[in-house]
Amino acid sequence: RPNMSSMEKSPRRLLLVEDELLTRRLLTSELEAWGFEIECADSVVEAKKQVKRFDPDIAVIDIGLKGHLNGLHFGQFLSIQHPDIAQIFLSALDLSTDTMGQGLGLPAGAGFANKHVIGETELLVEVIDQVVRGKKVAMQEAGSVLSPLEGLGKKGHRVMELVASGFSNQYIADQLGVTQKTVEYYVDQGYKALGVDTSAHRNARVDAALRYQELSDSGSAGETTV
């Protein structure tokens, strides 16, 4: 059984909206192993019915659903009618290509994962965890001071702590017992949380290390133990 400590207190009822049967079966099996209670739908029409019957906490939605209504249309419906449901979108394409092709953007606060994470379920679960954390953060009282790394979780904090200490992704993966791809995911999320511009000519890893150290010195980096 996977280590579910980071998701233990998170909502567990998940609606999977995916029209490819093989992908739907594979994701259902993998996510059930992480402790999620799963119901499935293969279209927007069926997904709306499942929302009423199942009352999910989380929806994992394929953007490229076949038919007149795609996954982004369903996301718009959830945002208006059920804003408490956390939304994570899947696509075999990169996000900008798929959303541009559909003519719609992701709803505010939604997460995204490329379908390559189907073979790295821990990454998909981490995306789910971050979106759920983000919703909890949004519900906190206005004016509360939060770390920019609030949504990373303990493992994400630990990865960025090791990055700031100058260690390579391979070393971090070996130390934490995860794949290098998982470390790369956390590093990318850390860059985004710290506001590091990865397109700039400067070394993004050095910038991230400096910004993380500044937060640590000010006591704002948050908990880093695992």
CATH class of the largest domain: Alpha Beta
Q: First CA to last CA: what distance?
A: 18 Å
Give the % helix: 40-55%
- What does the radius of gyration come to? 18 Å
Description:
The chain is an alpha/beta fold and 226 residues long. The protein has two domains: 11-138, Rossmann fold, CATH 3.40.50.2300; 150-218, Winged helix-like DNA-binding domain superfamily/Winged helix DNA-binding domain (Arc Repressor Mutant, subunit A), CATH 1.10.10.10. 49% of the residues lie in helices and 11% in strands. The protein is built from nine helices and five strands. It has helices spanning 21-33, 44-54, 71-81, 95-102, 121-138, 153-164, 169-176, 180-194, 204-218; strands at residues 13-17, 37-41, 58-62, 86-91, 111-114. The protein has a five-stranded parallel beta sheet, with helices on both faces. Helix 6 (153-164) crosses helix 8 (180-194) and helix 6 crosses helix 9. It is elongated and about 50 Å long. The two termini are 18 Å apart. Mean pLDDT is 79; it is low at 4-9 and 137-146.
Gist of the model:
The chain is α/β, with parallel strands linked by helices and 226 residues long. 49% of the residues lie in helices and 11% in strands. The protein has helices at residues 21-33, 44-54, 71-81, 95-102, 121-138, 153-164, 169-176, 180-194, 204-218, and strands at residues 13-17, 37-41, 58-62, 86-91, 111-114.
